[in-house]
Write a structure and sequence with these properties.
This protein has 14 helices and two strands, in the order αααααααααββααααα. It is mostly helical and 368 residues long. It has one domain: Alpha/alpha barrel (Glycosyltransferase), CATH 1.50.10. Strands 1-2 form a two-stranded antiparallel sheet. α5 runs parallel beside α8, α8 runs parallel beside α10 and α10 runs antiparallel to α11. It is globular and about 55 Å long. This is Glycoside hydrolase family 88 protein. InterPro entries: 6-hairpin_glycosidase_sf, 6hp_glycosidase-like_sf, Glyco_hydro_88, PolySaccharide_Degr_Enz.
């Protein structure tokens, strides 16, 4: 009898715990909760600025800020973006060919589409005019203009957004050329992931092979997150009948299938995609971009809902576990070019917040 009572008590406790967890998780998907959490994370980040406002880090952050504005309609968020643009004089960063310095222009273009104020895009038009007539010098590592995979978030969407806004496909064609060069250089067609740059490829003549501790190829989580986020932002813009659209869709689908196959139990992804055991904690920035990309794929009918929705729901629960009491997004790997171990709940970066905001902006659109 005592054994039976004990068994029943354990069952009730476990059932109650599971019910409480389910109830808590359901809260995370309510529109009001998502908006509240996005505003909290955004408010903290705006009070704790970092880097030059034209920097690539803020390019990713303000992409998320604009997504938060679209999601919430907050006038305060719009004002924050205006202040950023005015401080930058609506200019790209100073490096003409460097995709990192073009990322912030995505937000300028998005804002122009609402306000119609030409000053928001004119400097970028002038930058692109110069870009298109100025040769780019390559090198041992820099074998093409976009020679590192992160560039595929920074540059492509800015080019395509500008082309669509001006109804001028020369920018789209330029993006096709530069994107395909990067794809040919860095995309691993067996693993369906991108090397961060040529130094992390296995079969490149003259390049010393770098391996993870378990002998696997090095595929950086945030680097591939940049790519998937960039693919989303290109596909959002390209016309349905655009000649190369299927190339981007195929690349997106291949990466999506790979990414959900290596999702961790907590719903997140470690800093190194193929050597998760060697790295602590779920990494917020890569995980945020995957959550954003996968949710967008479902919302736009590109990814099968039955297959991908459980992964997105699991990821969003995991992402919320990274929000700290004061509102900052923790567990963000610092700036680098490969997987790192030196981050914790206290580690934050503006691009981590940007990734979280982008994820929330798509998760809120999901339908059961």
């Amino acid at each position: 009898m005592n054994k039976l009572i004990t068994t029943l008590l354990v069952f009730c406790i476990l059932t109650g715990t599971a019910f409480a967890q389910k109830e808590g998780n359901e809260k995370l998907f309510k529109d009001s909760y998502i908006k509240k959490t996005m505003k909290k994370a955004l408010s903290w980040q705006l009070k704790n600025p970092k880097h030059e406002l034209y920097d690539w880090t803020n390019g990713a952050f303000y992409a998320g800020v604009f997504a938060a504005y679209e999601t919430t309609g907050s006038k305060k968020i719009w004002k924050a973006m205006e202040e950023m643009g005015e401080a930058n004089e609506w200019k790209a960063g100073p490096r003409l060919h460097h995709a990192d310095d073009h990322a912030i222009c995505q937000t300028y273009i998005d804002m122009y589409r609402i306000s119609g104020d030409r000053k928001m895009i004119q400097p970028f038009i002038e930058t692109m005019d110069e870009f298109m007539v100025t040769p780019y010098e390559t090198g041992d590592i820099r074998k093409c203009t976009w020679w590192w995979c992160d560039a595929l978030f920074m540059g492509p969407a800015a080019f395509v957004k500008l082309g669509e806004t001006l109804d001028d496909d020369k920018y789209l064609k330029l993006n096709d050329k530069l994107f395909k060069e990067c794809y040919d250089l860095l995309y691993d067609k067996e693993e369906h992931l991108y090397a961060r740059d040529i130094r992390y490829k296995w079969d490149e003549p003259g390049i010393e092979v770098i391996k993870e501790s378990n002998g696997e190829k090095i595929f950086w989580s945030r680097g591939n997150g940049w790519v998937m986020g960039g693919l989303v932002r290109v596909l959002q813009e390209l016309p349905k009948d655009y000649p190369t659209r299927d190339f981007y869709i195929q690349n997106f689908k291949e990466m999506a299938a790979k990414i959900i196959s290596i999702q961790q139990e907590d719903g997140l992804w470690k800093a190194s995609l193929l050597d998760p055991e060697a790295y602590p904690g779920g990494e917020a920035s890569g995980s945020g971009f995957y959550t954003y990309a996968l949710a967008w794929g479902i919302n736009n009918g590109i990814l099968d809902k039955e297959k991908y929705l459980p992964a997105v729901e699991k990821a969003w629960v995991g992402m919320n576990s990274l929000i700290q009491p004061d509102g900052h997004v923790g567990w963000v790997q610092p700036i680098g070019a490969d997987p790192r171990k030196n981050f914790s709940a206290d580690s934050w970066e503006v691009y981590g917040t940007g990734a979280f905001l982008l994820a929330g902006s798509e998760v809120i659109k999901l339908k059961p």
